[in-house]
Specification:
With 368 residues, this protein is an alpha+beta fold. It folds into 2 domains: 92 residues; 236 residues, BirA Bifunctional Protein, domain 2. The protein contains 13 helices and 10 strands. A 7-stranded mixed sheet has the order 1-5-6-10-9-8-7, with helices on both faces. A 3-stranded antiparallel sheet has the order 2-4-3. The termini are far apart. About 2% of the residues have low confidence. Bound molecules: 3,4-dihydroxyphenylalanine.
């Protein structure tokens, strides 16, 4: 049985010369597609279909190689011209569409520079943070170090080390948050003074350390009290320190916070951890103690602003921390950060500093 004869490629009849009408039709199709391409993406499609490798004109061009020699020149001219027209149309449309796109971008992305900018408000640092940081900065400027201590404090550091007897009435002076269980002997620190003992034990003498931080007492929140507040403690222990050093240091701190020319006074007071103890007041920087028509709003008409407690560190505290009071003495102070911020900025109600109203906070925050 004989197989049917297979027709191989080389046996196929040679393609004939391209027909001008057909080529013209390809050109017309191409020009129509190019003309109706609405954007550059559309034109890309038209280019692929009508000038790409598999387009009718490219195929016709490729077929020229297989033509009889005498047909090649005419076919080459016909197809070449056709492809030239298509390519020209493509590049003309390309230029047009690019110009349209650029025009559209200019319109779409136009910015009216005369419009008022939409303000995006930035967050601000809280006035207490800024105040405490500035207080610490003043101390660093005097060559002091900054220390830290825990908010949940051992009762021993908060009271015992600071010379509060077990049943010393001063312990009741402080309205303390005790931490459960009571046997654990932990409290929320009622002042930053426990850092005095911590710093003495951890760093030894000579010691110049300030500690801004949070403190807690069982106070009701009102215009002048808050159960969570802030103090900055300072302690300096060295050879030969006197009350004059205490006063000079507090005057520098006051000037750093309220401006130059501070006049201060020390009023006798009592704290178990200092002897002698004092309250530091400074001359009201608004009325300067001069009589005014209506009582000064800053000092309430007294002419003095009470700032905080201070004194010479009690020898019992030094001894509790292993320091020889015969050789080393020093002073300590504890200033309220809230009070400082209130006087500095004329804030009359403490609650404003706690409520978190951005309109209040936005007035402060940036300080160089
Ligand atoms: N701890 C005291 C208070 O909270 C303030 C104070 C007074 C701190 C005298 C001191 C000091 O360092 O020497 O009221």
């Amino acid at each position: 049985m004989s197989e049917p004869q297979r027709t191989d490629d080389h046996d196929a009849p040679e393609p004939g010369a391209p027909v001008p009408e057909t080529i013209e039709q390809h050109v017309t199709d191409a020009l129509t597609a190019i003309g109706s391409a609405a954007d550059l993406e559309g034109l890309k499609g038209a280019r692929l279909a009508h000038a790409g490798e598999r387009s009718p004109l490219a195929l016709a061009n490729r077929a020229i190689g297989g033509l009889a020699p005498q047909d090649k020149a005419a076919a080459g001219k016909l197809v070449g011209q056709a492809r030239g027209r298509v390519n020209q149309a493509l590049s003309a449309r390309q230029t047009e569409l690019e110009a349209e796109r650029d025009e559209r971008i200019l319109v779409d992305e136009a910015r009216d520079l005369t419009l008022a900018p939409g303000r995006r408000s930035l967050g601000r640092r809280h006035v207490l943070t800024v105040t405490a940081e500035r207080m610490a900065d003043v101390m660093v400027g005097l060559g002091w170090e900054i220390a830290d201590g825990p908010g949940v404090e051992a009762e021993w550091f908060n009271f015992d080390a600071l010379n509060f007897d077990k049943d010393h009435p001063a312990r009741q002076m402080q309205d303390t948050f005790f931490v459960d269980p009571p046997e654990a002997g932990l409290v929320l620190r009622t002042h930053t003074s426990p850092v005095q003992a911590r710093a003495l034990l951890e760093r030894g003498v000579p010691l110049y350390v300030a500690c801004p931080g949070k403190t807690y007492r069982t106070d009701e929140l009102d215009a002048t009290h808050t159960p969570v507040f802030h103090q900055m403690e300072g302690i300096a222990i060295d050879e030969g320190l006197t009350m004059a050093h205490l006063r000079g240091t507090l005057d520098r701190l006051a000037e750093g916070m309220f401006g130059p020319g501070i006049v201060s006074r020390l009023r006798p007071n009592y704290f178990p951890f200092t002897e002698p103890s004092a309250e530091m007041d400074f001359r009201c920087f608004v009325c300067r103690g001069e009589p005014t028509a209506s009582p000064c709003r800053t000092c309430g008409g007294t002419g003095w602003i009470e700032w905080g407690g201070c004194g010479m560190v009690n020898h019992n505290v030094l001894r509790a921390c292993g320091v020889d009071p015969e050789r080393y003495q020093g002073f300590a102070f504890g200033m309220g950060v809230e009070r400082t911020a209130m006087f500095r900025h004329g804030i009359s109600d403490m609650r404003e500093m706690i409520e978190g109203d951005v309109r209040f906070n936005a007035q402060f925050g940036m300080e160089i």
